[in-house]
Amino acid sequence: MERTIGVVTEEGRGVFSRISGLMERRGFQVRGVTAGATQRPGMARYTLVIGGDERQAGQAVRQIRKMVETVTVEDLSAGGCVERCMMLLKFAPSPEEREALFEVMKGYPHSVSEDRGSSLIFEMMGPGVLLDDCLENVRGLGLVESVKSGPLALGTN
């Protein structure tokens, strides 16, 4: 089971290092992380996906809340959230694989970022589980390289 935690902090040197160190010391398995700016100047937002249940997420929230720089922290999974990741997939398919690849990709939201005939790059955005499913379904179709971002998430409350 995974939990998504949203953290807003004051911007500053070493804040992310302290958050990741805290997760490490407390034994939380971080499965995804994204950091970025917010609509408020001087603030940063971190989205963490950790392995664990509601109790473990609650413990992580309490620990992060104790940090001096923390403005808000919440378990986004508890109240519902919209989560998106991005993935790029690079292929060097044979002519037969190319046809099959386009057929498989019809089932997923995507765009072709680059098509040079002998190589293709697809761009996808969606929930992490959807992107993982797509990756599993295209593995044998000339896949050369893939990269997936950490999550962006906002609570729906």
TrEMBL record:
ACT domain ranges (all copies): 4-78
Biochemical pathway: Amino-acid biosynthesis; L-valine biosynthesis; L-valine from pyruvate: step 1/4; Amino-acid biosynthesis; L-isoleucine biosynthesis; L-isoleucine from 2-oxobutanoate: step 1/4
E.C. no: 2.2.1.6
Gene Ontology BP terms: isoleucine biosynthetic process; L-valine biosynthetic process
Pfam families, A to Z: ACT_AHAS_ss, ALS_ss_C
Keyword ATP-binding appears in the UniProt entry: no
Enzyme type, top EC level: transferase
UniProt similarity note: Belongs to the acetolactate synthase small subunit family.
Protein name: Acetolactate synthase small subunit
UniProt organism field: Aminivibrio pyruvatiphilus
